[in-house]
């Protein structure tokens, strides 16, 4: 008699559509972006938009081949108008309904994509944004998570950016100082609100719970300030207390409210 077997369930990968505005993104950071996205899932769609006849995009060519990114050609039909932006937006909407990825990743420093991000998120899609530090706040805030590309690759790294086919190396600043972080009123309020909402009667909240609350309401990423984790950033600010560091029960409390 033949035995019966149980088929093991196959888990489908979390599929991400990566759309790159090549005119407003550094080619040298694409490997770091792909590595970062691997934390969320598999990048099954990879497209970069631009007028590839322009010498300004010459540095992208090798990166496209190495990273298996499909170049989407869009000629500049009118002076001072970027047709690539429109092509990217149209493709995003088409992919949403035809390819149905689980999430989108948009690489750009252009706030013109803010309405597109709003649309995708209203349709239930996560949108991971990547752009330069100078990216306007509306685009940053609209994303599920926004990461400053200059900060990818370490707390303090060297970035070699291709421009007109020639490489130039620039030193990036290290982590933002605790004093500077204290001056970021929006960030401090975000942390205090999240800690307060998750705190017990003694004012302590599990860091994991606090981080979850932050991610559910903000696109902030600690790496944008030069810190690999929220715990390291919180510690640097020096307005909060940490206990049980190095354990899964690590907790944080607002120094004004905790009972020791």
UniProtKB/TrEMBL annotation:
This is Uncharacterized protein (TIGR00288 family). InterPro entries: LOTUS-like, NYN, OST-HTH/LOTUS_dom. Residues 157-177 are annotated as: Disordered. Residues 183-256 form the HTH OST-type domain. Gene3D superfamilies: 5'-nuclease (3.40.50.1010), LOTUS domain-like (3.30.420.610). Pfam families: NYN, OST-HTH. One of its GO terms (molecular function) is RNA nuclease activity.
């Amino acid at each position: 008699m033949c035995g019966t077997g149980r088929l093991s369930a196959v888990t489908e990968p979390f599929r991400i559509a990566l759309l790159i505005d090549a005119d407003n993104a550094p080619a040298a950071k694409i490997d770091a972006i792909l590595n970062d996205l691997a934390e969320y899932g598999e990048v099954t769609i990879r497209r970069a938009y631009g007028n590839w006849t322009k010498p300004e995009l010459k540095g992208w060519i090798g990166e496209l081949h190495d990273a298996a990114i499909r170049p989407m050609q869009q000629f500049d039909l009118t002076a001072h108008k970027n047709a690539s932006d429109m092509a990217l937006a149209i493709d995003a909407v088409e992919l949403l309904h035809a390819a149905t990825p689980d999430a989108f990743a948009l690489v750009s420093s252009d706030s013109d994509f803010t309405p597109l991000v709003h649309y995708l998120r209203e349709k239930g899609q996560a949108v991971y944004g990547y752009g330069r530090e100078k990216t306007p706040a509306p685009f940053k805030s609209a994303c599920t998570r926004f990461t400053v590309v200059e900060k990818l690759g370490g707390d303090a790294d060297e970035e070699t950016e291709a421009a007109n086919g020639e490489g130039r190396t620039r030193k990036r600043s290290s982590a933002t100082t605790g004093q500077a972080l204290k001056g970021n009123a929006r960030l401090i309020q975000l942390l205090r609100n999240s800690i307060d909402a998750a705190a017990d009667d003694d004012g302590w909240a599990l860091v994991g719970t606090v981080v979850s609350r932050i991610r559910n309401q903000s696109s902030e990423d600690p790496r944008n300030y030069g810190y690999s984790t929220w715990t390291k950033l919180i510690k640097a600010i020096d307005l909060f207390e940490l206990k049980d560091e190095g354990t899964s029960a690590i907790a944080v409390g607002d120094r004004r409210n905790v009972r020791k």
